[in-house]
Amino acid sequence: MTFNSTDTSSTPTTAGAGAVDAAVDHWRTLPISQQPDWRDHPGYGAAVAELSMLPPLVFAGEVDVLRSRLAEAAAGRAFLLQGGDCAETFEGATADRISARVKTILQMAVVLTYGASLPVIKMGRMAGQFAKPRSSNEETRDGVTLPAYRGDMVNGFDFTAASRAHDPARMVRAYHTSASTLNLIRAFTQGGFADLRLVHDWNRGFTANPAHSRYESLAAEIDRAVRFMDACGADFEALKRVEFFASHEALLLDYERALTRTDSRTGLPYDTSAHFLWIGERTRDLDSAHVDFLSRVRNPIGVKLGPTTRPEDALALIDKLDPNREPGRLTFITRMGAKNIREKLPDLVEKVTASGAQVLWVTDPMHGNTVTSPNGYKTRNFDDIMDELRGFFEVHKALGTFPGGLHVEMTGDDVAECLGGADPVDQDAFVDGYASVCDPRLNHMQSLEMAFLVAGALAGKK
Ligand code: PEP
Ligand code: MN
């Protein structure tokens, strides 16, 4: 978020009318999947009307700043770090948990900045990541079948009929929870708590763990770099403020549409629920409502691409979502799985590059590597995650293209959801330590370890 005094473009957006609205609403005529079943709910109209009246969560000017930052990354001059929960929850939106997540992202970013020698764009899967696509509409436990949990914006996680009923009033609560989350993030990143020296100090806790001794030399190099900057008179006051952007999967189009406003400066529609929105692997069909809706807002857009993506699918998505080939507009977030990435990614990258499009390539090394542990938990192996990451860097190196970012499911807390790491998590720890309501996240230490490994690889390449 850019609340610097030099940012004059943070003009509020106003609800628009006429032709702009008609275009933005075209998705309503198209096939749509993964939506709640609440159009006939007595509270539906009131919830949508209330959301439509509430202030934007982000400003159009901030969204434009992010697009220019992502354009830098697409050109190989910056690196994107995007991280957070698979599914945020209302209960989990506490000061401690939000600040632990932001701190962890900032800590990772310092390490990656050093490794890449590039600015790192910091972005949370935060302040809106409340709706989940599901492979099945229903869940059965002990012979009882209820609607599947679709995220706190739709229904509750508790396995009771009342909790699992789809309730449109939850969209309004999601808005307010997002607003208070953003408020804390803005205070944290703009209020002087993100001082580079302080963030670097937090990382000492990581290397103090004997399991992480192999990262000591890189940590010492970063330490020397910070002291060198200090000795040279670097303006650490200026480094106390960092830009931090919010993002989520644009899944519930009722919510996204209600928060879409026409910018008073440009007359163009912006989805003000977040700076960056992405389309999930399950909703990226070219002729779908999701792709159409996001083609019509000015925000930078991501699309998840799984192993079944054909190059012609990627090219058609570019034509629809980025017809003007505007750097920073489109990010492809590949999530191939460690077993597939070296085989599937090259063709995709080659054909997209040959088309002349300048997309930003980001790896999501989580979603293609989900397995069930012998004791029945949805999990991921740290080694598989790192293997996909390495594959991503190898492919781009071989093709001469830029591996521009990292998209991860992580938390700042000491949970046990993913297996492995230098201070290994084993499946027995899941019994007490598994807290995710959806996919498994890297815990605080695993997240930092990933940053050190990626930074080591990036630094080694130079
Ligand atoms: C997610 O990011 O949580 C998700 C569901 O990802 P994908 O669309 O890649 O499966
Ligand atoms: Mn997920």
TrEMBL record:
<comment type="pathway">
    <text>Metabolic intermediate biosynthesis; chorismate biosynthesis; chorismate from D-erythrose 4-phosphate and phosphoenolpyruvate: step 1/7.</text>
</comment>
<feature type="binding site">
    <location>
        <position position="367"/>
    </location>
    <ligand>
        <name>Mn(2+)</name>
    </ligand>
</feature>
<keyword id="KW-0808">Transferase</keyword>
<keyword id="KW-0170">Cobalt</keyword>
<dbReference type="GO" id="GO:0008652">
    <property type="term" value="P:amino acid biosynthetic process"/>
</dbReference>
<feature type="binding site">
    <location>
        <position position="335"/>
    </location>
    <ligand>
        <name>phosphoenolpyruvate</name>
    </ligand>
</feature>
<feature type="binding site">
    <location>
        <position position="86"/>
    </location>
    <ligand>
        <name>Mn(2+)</name>
    </ligand>
</feature>
<keyword id="KW-0028">Amino-acid biosynthesis</keyword>
<dbReference type="Pfam" id="PF01474">
    <property type="entry name" value="DAHP_synth_2"/>
</dbReference>
<keyword id="KW-0464">Manganese</keyword>
<protein>
    <recommendedName>
        <fullName>Phospho-2-dehydro-3-deoxyheptonate aldolase</fullName>
        <ecNumber>2.5.1.54</ecNumber>
    </recommendedName>
</protein>
<dbReference type="GO" id="GO:0009073">
    <property type="term" value="P:aromatic amino acid family biosynthetic process"/>
</dbReference>
<feature type="binding site">
    <location>
        <position position="125"/>
    </location>
    <ligand>
        <name>phosphoenolpyruvate</name>
    </ligand>
</feature>
<keyword id="KW-0104">Cadmium</keyword>
<feature type="binding site">
    <location>
        <position position="409"/>
    </location>
    <ligand>
        <name>Mn(2+)</name>
    </ligand>
</feature>
<dbReference type="GO" id="GO:0009423">
    <property type="term" value="P:chorismate biosynthetic process"/>
</dbReference>
<dbReference type="InterPro" id="IPR013785">
    <property type="entry name" value="Aldolase_TIM"/>
</dbReference>
<feature type="binding site">
    <location>
        <position position="304"/>
    </location>
    <ligand>
        <name>phosphoenolpyruvate</name>
    </ligand>
</feature>
<comment type="similarity">
    <text>Belongs to the class-II DAHP synthase family.</text>
</comment>
<keyword id="KW-0057">Aromatic amino acid biosynthesis</keyword>
<feature type="binding site">
    <location>
        <position position="439"/>
    </location>
    <ligand>
        <name>Mn(2+)</name>
    </ligand>
</feature>
<dbReference type="InterPro" id="IPR002480">
    <property type="entry name" value="DAHP_synth_2"/>
</dbReference>
<feature type="binding site">
    <location>
        <begin position="281"/>
        <end position="282"/>
    </location>
    <ligand>
        <name>phosphoenolpyruvate</name>
    </ligand>
</feature>
<dbReference type="GO" id="GO:0003849">
    <property type="term" value="F:3-deoxy-7-phosphoheptulonate synthase activity"/>
</dbReference>
